Each structure stands twice: as C-alpha cells, then as structure tokens.
Amino acid sequence: MLVLALESSCDETAAALVDGAVVYSETVRSQLDLHHIYGGVVPEIAGRAHLEAVEAIVGQVFADAGASLADVGGLAVTQGPGLVGALLVALSFAKGLSISARLPLTGVNHVQAHALAPFLREGENMKDSGSTPSGPELGFPLVALVVSGGHTNLFLVESPLRFQTLGRTLDDAAGEAFDKSAKLMGLGYPGGRVIEEMARQGDPDGYKLARPLWGKGLDFSFSGLKTQVMTVYRQENMDDEPADSQKLKDLAASFQAAVADVLVHKLEMAVSRHRVKSVVVAGGVAANGALREATLRRFAGLAVGLPKLSWCADNAAMIGYLGGLQLARNANILDLAAEAKPRWPIESLK
C-alpha cells in the first residue's frame, strides 16, 4: 500500500511516498538558516515555517514520484514527541486530507520510526520498473540506540511494533550536549556538524574528559560532560584563541570521543545482556562519522544497521514505513479529535 507520510516535529518539514520499506519520493525542507542566528530552534519560527512549506512539499513528492492522491491507500503523520506547535502543522494538514480524501490516518511515534530507519530502501520512480536495492540483513529481536538532539534511548526491539526501553538520558541528550558544548566553545550552531569538522584535526586524547555513568546501567548523562568542556575551555583561556586553534580542535576531538565511547559502551552492554544478533544506531547523531566507525568496529560480528546520512536526520520516509505497518494492523488510527503528543514514551503505544 502506498502511504503518504508527513513529518514536522522540530525544524524540518518533510513528506514522502512509501510502499512498505521502499521510498519512491521524499522531500525535506530545512529551517537551519532561520534558526542559525539564535543558536537553536525557536518554536514559534519553526511552526510558521512549517505552515508555509507543508502544502508545497506534498505536491512535490507526488510530482517526483509520478503519482497522485488516487494512488495512495493511507496516510501517516508524526504525532509526537516534538515541539507541540510544530507537530500540529503536519497533524492538522493530515487530518484534513484524511477527511477530504477518505483515507485512513495513523499517528506515528517519531523516536520509534528513527529506530526502523535502517530498513528503508530507495525505489525507482513509480512509472519505471526496477529492482529494489538490498540492505543489511537485520533481524529481530535487535537492540537499537536512538540518539539525537532531543532523545538518547536504548531499546530492545522485539518486532517493528514492540519496543522495550532499556535506557534513556537522565538530562541532556547527546545531540543537545553537542549543540551546547559547541556554543560554549564559540563554534556556532548546529554543534554536531562543527564539532565533527574540528575533531578531524584534533587529538581525541588531548584532554581527559569523563565517561559519565560508565558501567553503571544503561541510562545516559551528558550534562556533566558539557560542564567539563566549559571548565577546560575557561581554564585554557580558549576565548583568546583563534577559531582554528589546535586547543579548540583537541577539545572538540576529546568531547566527541567521550560521547562516542559512552554510547557504544552502553550499546555493547545492552547487546551482551540480551544476546541479540543485530544492532541499530539511528537518529541525528548517528550521522557522526566517529560514532559510525566505532559502532562498525565494535560490532563487526553482528548485523549493524546504520541509516544513510539523510535518513539519520528527521525525515518522512521513516514515518511512512512505520505508518504503513500500523495501517496494516489498524493501529493508532486517528480521527479529528486526535492531539499532538509533545511527550510520548514508546511503552505508551497501543
């Protein structure tokens, strides 16, 4: 069944046409240029930008796929978690389309969808014939690490619709720690990208930074690490250093190594406890090269699922894949009374 999917949980407006795990077309409109000067996402600006973009990007995915609304069998939309004003844009649009086109609509958990992103495949244009590329041979149950600006979670995934939370962040998510640390170091926004660029020329052992909660369960904590970065930055008088200072590069590399070490260590602990044969690392921080390399190196004997870089970021393709599975099971079907869920733990899914 062809599914039209919409995503507007934060600062990307996205739409996709998906059939099973096959993505026929997708569009993501970033708002990075709008939020850059503020050093982070401004919810009111994000909501207005989604309103301006949503209708146009839906039209674009139909044009790119050579399809029309008549080809669609169901709709999927991010219902949460996320910024409530942002979520309401795609949700309201999808509800209106569901009523007017008489199509079923399912609400998708954004974090759960991230965990399934490695299963996505690129398809040919709908009017062409061609084979679907094969991907990693992931199997269930698996352990998934979803790590982004707003979320750092470890899950035991028994099936695409059955998740058990094993660990979560107790304070800052890893991506949030990247952004805040970059801001403290005067490196700008978004932090993940600029820290990774600087870290390539830095020494990951340049500064001895903590590995928070090392060996202490499966929860995460990055707030203290961020504070340690600030302390080193001030002690070393890096305010007076040029932007390409080796000190800054070493601090960026040391911070990145600390975060990657903790993430992979916790993932390894979860895999050992549950003896799974497949692991997934997904979400925005999964685009980080150091984390990807460490994951592949540490789990060389297992099937490892890493989404392609564009599917690490927020996108509608992953919403369409999970949405299609939910529609097939008549799960979480929405009506006009459905509300956005800015907080939506995986275990609460019905």
Can you give keywords for this protein?
five-stranded mixed sheet, alpha/beta, Nucleotidyltransferase, domain 5, 19% strand, 350 residues, 2 domains, 11 helices, globular
In short:
The protein has 350 residues and is α/β, with parallel strands linked by helices. It is built from 11 helices and 11 strands.
Topology:
Layout: E1 2-7, E2 12-19, E3 22-30, H1 32-35, H2 43-65, E4 74-80, H3 84-101, E5 105-109, H4 110-115, E6 121-122, E7 142-147, E8 152-159, E9 162-168, H5 174-184, H6 191-199, H7 223-235, H8 246-274, E10 278-282, H9 289-298, E11 303-305, H10 309-312, H11 317-328
Parallel strand pairs: 1-4, 3-6, 4-5, 7-10, 10-11
Antiparallel strand pairs: 1-2, 2-3, 7-8, 8-9
Characterization of this structure:
With 350 residues, this protein is an alpha/beta fold. The chain folds into two domains: 2-136 and 310-348, ATPase, nucleotide binding domain (Nucleotidyltransferase, domain 5); 142-305, ATPase, nucleotide binding domain (Nucleotidyltransferase, domain 5, 2-Layer Sandwich), CATH 3.30.420. It has eleven helices and eleven strands. It has helices at 32-35, 43-65, 84-101, 110-115, 174-184, 191-199, 223-235, 246-274, 289-298, 309-312, 317-328, and strands spanning 2-7, 12-19, 22-30, 74-80, 105-109, 121-122, 142-147, 152-159, 162-168, 278-282, 303-305. The strands form two sheets. The protein has a six-stranded mixed β-sheet with strand order 5-4-1-2-3-6, with helices on both faces. Strand 8 and strand 9 form a beta hairpin. The longest helix has 29 residues, at 246-274. Mean pLDDT is 91; it is low at 126-135.
